[in-house]
Amino acid sequence: MKLKVLGSVSPYCAKKGNCPGYLLEKDNNRILLDCGNGITREMSFPKELENLTIVISHLHRDHYGALLTIGYASYVYHHLGLLKEKIKVYLPKSPSLDSKYLTSMRECFMEFIFYDEKTTIRVGDLKISFKRNPHPVPTYAIKVASTNESIVYSADTGYQNNVLEEFAKNADLLICETTFLKSQKQSEDNHLTTIEAGMIAKKAQVKKLLITHFWPEIPKIKYKLETKRIFKNTIVAQEGKTIEIGG
Ligand SMILES: [Zn+2]
Ligand SMILES: [Zn+2]
């Protein structure tokens, strides 16, 4: 399994960063975890539209903004005869206006499917499963696993004692949000700090931690230094970076 980082910042895509998006590839199947603004800058079409499954962690715009762009590209390439299979898009079950807006999208070659915590999705030999997060809208951490490799993506989440730790237990890679530096955490618990991400990785005994969801204005090295103090095998999400997982 191979992972390409397409985006690492929020709430807007900046000159040097796109909103969250992570592209997994295995055996010619692709799974795109989140679809933030700007991620298409790191993708190549029509190739990466083929055999593509998109999973959106939640309907905040930093996580689905590029869905409209990808949808329109799928429509164009399908009409050119270069895209044969509809792109499957999984969205959290949510009565929000955003969800109505997306699923009524025209000029796209996509199929929209709702999921919740009980849903399991299979793509080739990979199994995708979910865990509900504390966050202002329905939001899910996502696990992608085969018999011998696994990736867990925290999505956006407040801290909940031992929940993400259990869900990510022994994962090869934990992609974890670190929205806040240690000094920045506010009273509302909707996002994690560098310290919390490091503690979660340590307790879950994951092999590697990829931190992400940074403020575009803050140098990434600051997040890295704080997290590494807690969990040594920490790497920083960088657009275009590729990581090999499992064997
Ligand atoms: Zn969010
Ligand atoms: Zn976000």
Label this structure with key terms.
247 residues; alpha/beta; Metallo-beta-lactamase, Chain A; seven-stranded mixed β-sheet; 6 helices; 20% helix; 28% strand; binds zinc ion
Explained architecture:
The protein has one domain: Ribonuclease Z/Hydroxyacylglutathione hydrolase-like (Metallo-beta-lactamase, Chain A, 4-Layer Sandwich). The chain has 6 helices and 14 strands. It starts with a strand and ends with a strand. Helix 5 crosses helix 6. A 7-stranded mixed beta sheet has the order 6-5-4-3-2-1-14. It has 247 residues and is an alpha/beta fold. One zinc ion is lined by residues 10, 60, 62-63, 156, 213.
Radius of gyration: 17 Å
Silhouette: globular
Task: Tell me, rounded to a whole number, the average pLDDT.
Answer: 96
The CATH homologous superfamily is termed Ribonuclease Z/Hydroxyacylglutathione hydrolase-like
Residue windows where pLDDT falls under 50 for at least 5 positions: none
User: What structural category characterises the helix and strand content?
Assistant: alpha/beta
The total of beta strands comes to 14
Percent of residues in helices comes to 10-25%
Q: Which cofactor or ligand species appear?
A: zinc ion
Distance between the termini: 8 Å
CATH class: Alpha Beta
- What string gives the helices and strands in order? EEEEHHEHEEEEEHEHEHEE
**CATH fold-level assignment:** Metallo-beta-lactamase, Chain A
CATH architecture level-2 label: 4-Layer Sandwich
Largest sheet: 7 strands, mixed
The total domain count is 1
**β content, as a range?**
25-35%
Biggest sheet, spatial arrangement of strands: 6-5-4-3-2-1-14
Question: Treating each run of at least 4 consecutive H or I residues as one helix, how many helices?
Answer: 6
